[in-house]
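USER:
I would value a second opinion on how I read folds in C-alpha cell form. Give me a protein, with the fold worked out from its sequence. Write it directly below this note and I will take it from there.

ASSISTANT:
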Amino acid sequence: MTDNIFDYINWRGDLSFRQSPFNEVDGAILAKLSYLPLERVLEQGSMEPISIADAAKKLFALPNINGSFMRKEDSPLLSALAESPRFCNMGLFACMNRFDPESQTQFFAMTIRLSESELYVAFRGTDNTLVGWKEDFNMCFVCPVPAQKLAVEYLESTVKNSVGRITVGGHSKGGNLAVYSAAKSSGNIQERIVAVHNNDGPGFIWDISKTPGHKRIAGRIHTVLPQTSVVGMLMEHEKHYQVVYSTYDGLYQHDGFSWQVKGTQFVHLDDFSREGKLVDEALSSWADSLNTQQREALAEALYSVFTATGAKTLSELNEEKLKSASAMLKTYKNLDRESRRMVSEMFKIFFRLGTKNFVLDTQEEGGRELENLRRRISEQYQKLLERKK
C-alpha cells in the first residue's frame, strides 16, 4: 500500500527539518502551494513574512474563495499545512504576480522561509487562463518568454540581500522556470543554491544543458516525472530524471496529488510505462517535424481559434460559449492553408491521445475541463470536416 502527499503531511508533519531534512516530497508540496491564490492575501513585493497558518486564515476568510479561486484539493492541502508543525510556521513573502494579455505573460512567484538559514523560491505553473496557456505554446518557439525573464529577475532580486541556503522549485511551467532561473542566475547566487526541484516541467527549444550556467548547477537539479509523463518530456529536457509512480491515467498523472510516497521520497520506478513511451514518441515525432516558424504559426492559429469564442479562461470554454461555434469555425476558415494544415494535425493528435495534450493545466479539475473541451472541439471539428466535403 502506498500513500500520497496528504498521507505524508499527516505522517511526517510533526517533524522539524532538523529532525527530518528537506526532501523531494516537501519540494513538490511547496510547488503545489504556489498554485493557491495567495496573491489575494500577500502584499505584492513585501519582504515581511506571513506564516502559512496566518495566510490560510486570511484566505479562508475571503468570500467565495472555495470553488471560485481554489480547486478541490486546495482547501484540504492548505488546511493540512496550516495545522502541521513542519509547515505551519514557514514564512511567505516577496509575492510577485504578473498577468498581461498583451505581452502574453502569466507569472507568479513567492519565497518561503524554511528556517533562519534556508529559503525555498517557488514558481507557479500554468494557471487556468488562455493567456497562460498561450505563453506555454510560445515556449515551443521562443526562449526566453516573459515568465522566464521574470523568473531570473525575481530570483536575483529576492535573495540578494538574504543569507543562507536556497532551494528553487516548481511544478509544470514552474519547474521550467526553476531550472531556467537557477541556470541563468549570477555565480554568487548559484553558489548558495543547494537544490532545484523540477516537478514534471517542460524542456526548452534549445539544449540549455550546454550553457555554462546550467553546467554549474546540473548536479543539483532534481527532476521527477510520472510514468506517463507528457509535459516533462517536451522539447529539450533534463537528461537525468527520476520516474515516479502515479495512480492516475494519462494526462491526469501530471497532477502531483497522484504521485505516491514511501517514507521521505516518492515511489521510484525504473522507467516510463509503455504508454508513456508511445505518447512521447508520437508527440516528439510530430513536434520535430515543425520548424520554428511553423510552431509560431500553429500557436497563433490555435490561440486565435480559442479566443474567438470570447473566453478568457479554460473554464469559460463551456457549452454556452461553444454553442456559437461559428466564431471558431470562421476563424479557422480564415487561416492560411499551412496554418489550417498544422491545426488539423494538432487536433488529430489531440483527439487520438485523448487527454494527453501539449500544454496542460496542473490540477485534476483542470484535466477534466480539458477533456470536456477536447470532446466538444472534436465534435465541432468533425462538423467542419463534413462541411468541407
Observations:
- The two ends are 54 Å apart (CA to CA).
- Residues 364-388 form the longest helix (25 residues).
- The chain has 16 helices and eleven strands.
- The longest strand covers residues 105-115.
